[in-house]
Design goal:
The protein has about 110 residues and is α+β, with helices and mostly antiparallel strands. The protein has helices at about 10-15, 35-50, 65-70, 95-105, and strands spanning about 25-30, 55-60, 75-80, 85-90. It is about 35% helix and about 25% strand. It starts with 11 loop residues before the first helix and ends with a helix.
């Protein structure tokens, strides 16, 4: 899992749904090799977007309620939330350029 703050079933509503700024949530698992490949990219995005987008991780094995509620069927899955609503989703390992191409139009960055 990426070296970022973690969201849990208990904190999802407060941290993601009630956020005033966009949130990128990285759904992953410790046993997931593509997740480990994606982690450095997600950490880079968190640094680049500091103050503009909050970036968190969520362990699917420990947080089944949120995982099921968001319809996450495979990992890694990145979901961008704006005003608490999911607006974009990427599943599987995705290169940074493709992530930026999908998310930047929503972020205006």
């Amino acid at each position: 899992m990426a070296n970022l703050a973690e969201v849990t079933d208990a904190t999802f509503e407060e941290v993601v749904k009630n956020s005033k700024i966009p949130v990128l949530l990285d759904f992953g698992a410790t046993w997931c090799h593509p997740c480990k490949q994606l982690d450095p990219i997600v950490e880079e995005l968190a640094q680049e977007w500091e103050g503009q987008v909050k970036v968190f991780t969520l362990d699917i094995d420990s947080n089944l309620e949120t995982t099921m509620q968001m319809g996450v069927m495979g990992v890694p899955t990145l979901i961008l939330f704006i005003n608490g609503e999911p607006v974009e989703r990427l599943t599987g390992y995705v290169p940074k350029k493709k992530i930026l191409n999908k998310l930047n139009p929503h972020l205006g960055l």
